[in-house]
Specification:
Elements: E1 4-8, E2 26-27, E3 30-31, H1 32-41, E4 48-53, H2 58-64, E5 74-75, H3 80-92, E6 100-105, H4 115-122, E7 128-134, E8 139-143, E9 146-151, E10 157-159, E11 163-166, H5 167-176, H6 185-190, E12 195-199, H7 212-220, E13 224-238, E14 243-245, E15 248-250, E16 255-256, H8 264-277, H9 282-285, H10 299-311, E17 315-324, H11 334-345, E18 352-357, H12 363-366, E19 370-382
Parallel strand pairs: 1-4, 1-6, 4-5, 7-12, 17-18
Antiparallel strand pairs: 2-3, 6-11, 7-10, 7-11, 8-9, 13-16, 13-19, 14-15, 17-19
Length: 383
């Protein structure tokens, strides 16, 4: 029977104070929720995810999780407990409900490998199992800004997710719940069922406040290695063609000749990204011999290159394009070019550079016969 994980993403993240739910915020270039989903699937023990989402945001979440093995997203309730209950009832309505289920916070983007396998193994002897960290700090009970007393920390643990359960007992516990619980293990405890306590991890942090994002980035970075690629392209200037550079049509008496729209800057950038991925060049992915690419908008090529980075679980950290020509003058268009390239790659404009130089009237670019471009792209790829 498949193992299904409820991916809890129905919260609004009010404590974080952002303009959108914290699970949608970027973490190393990708949403926190995407990291959480991929962490659940990394060990290969989870077969499907069931996202539980805010009202009206199923399409947003399904776009974030595109390409992952997900059941159709369902809307959560007013509380976390109500949202988990909604997810469990959706699973109960399946033709074959799961035997084992996990519940994971969509704001926990880092999950140590082996955690899920250990949790599922514990379900052989317990109806529930959770990862937890022993409390190491001295605990104080406070009131009105003053300490009331010190609370003994012995045998105290900080509960984490994913929490794993046999599906039947968890569903029964939710249906019978007469209290509001902050985690699902509490409902099994209230029903008198034993829940196994497994070692958690400090890296399994929950993004709750703004300072948690830098902590998550610092924990994730060791899992990535830098990769760099370069690209170079040349196209001849001819009459009767529009001049397209870095995704923009530039007013000029001549245009670039090529099978597609001949956007020399964008082509060089694509080659830089493909090079960093060690996936060949633009001609490998979009052969000029194929009629499909005749006069094609090169924006499609850059979206593809950026998509290949995402498919590999990577991040575009910076790109730099240098256009080499005497005319037209690039300076007046550089900021718009940066914005267009950032849009196509789905990264902040602060990580995109576009600049220009000349060859002091030497060579074919100096004579105005063509335009050349060189580009560099820096990525982070999973180690």
């Amino acid at each position: 029977m498949p193992v299904i994980a409820l991916l809890m993403a129905a919260g609004r993240g009010q404590r974080f104070g952002a303009d959108r739910p914290k699970q949608y915020l970027p973490l190393l270039g990708r949403p926190v929720l995407r990291h959480a989903a991929e962490a659940l699937l990394a060990d290969g023990a989870v077969d499907f995810l069931l996202p539980v989402v805010p009202a009206g945001e199923a399409a947003t979440v399904e776009d974030i999780l595109a390409g992952l093995p997900c059941l159709p997203a369902i809307e959560g309730g007013a509380t976390r407990q109500a949202s988990v209950r909604a997810g469990l009832e959706a699973l109960a309505a399946l033709a074959e409900p799961p035997v084992l289920v996990l519940v994971h916070d969509g704001a926990r983007p880092i999950l140590p490998r082996g955690t899920i396998l250990a949790l599922l193994a514990a379900l052989e002897t317990h109806p529930g199992a959770i990862p937890a960290q022993p409390v190491s700090d001295t605990l104080k009970l406070g009131r009105d800004g003053a300490i009331q007393k010190t609370v003994p920390r012995e045998n105290l643990y900080r509960a984490q997710t994913p929490q794993a359960f046999r599906f039947g007992p968890l569903l029964d516990a939710h249906r019978a719940a007469g209290q509001e619980a902050t985690d699902d293990a509490a409902l099994l405890e209230a029903a008198g069922l034993p829940v196994a306590l497994l070692p958690g991890s400090e890296t399994n942090l929950k993004v709750t406040y703004p300072e948690d994002l830098p902590r998550a980035e610092a924990a994730l970075l060791p899992r990535y290695l830098p990769a760099m690629g370069t690209g170079f392209d040349v196209h001849r200037l001819v009459e009767g063609r529009p001049l397209v550079l870095c995704g923009l049509t530039i007013p000029h008496s001549l245009g670039l000749d090529g099978h597609s729209d001949a956007d020399v800057g964008l082509h060089a950038l694509c080659d830089a990204i493909y090079g960093a991925l060690a996936e060949g060049d633009i001609g490998r992915h979009f052969p000029p011999s194929e009629a499909e690419w005749k006069d094609a908008d090169s924006a499609r090529f850059l979206r593809h290159a950026a998509g290949r980075v995402a498919a590999r679980g990577g991040i575009i950290t910076h790109t730099d394009v240098t256009l080499i020509c005497e005319r037209p003058k690039i300076g007046p268009h550089a900021e718009a070019m940066r914005a267009r390239l950032a849009e196509l790659m789905g990264i902040p404009v602060t990580r995109v550079s576009v600049k220009a130089t000349t060859t002091e009237r030497l060579g074919f670019t100096g004579r105005g016969e063509g335009i050349a471009a060189q580009a560099a792209a820096t990525l982070l790829l999973p180690a």
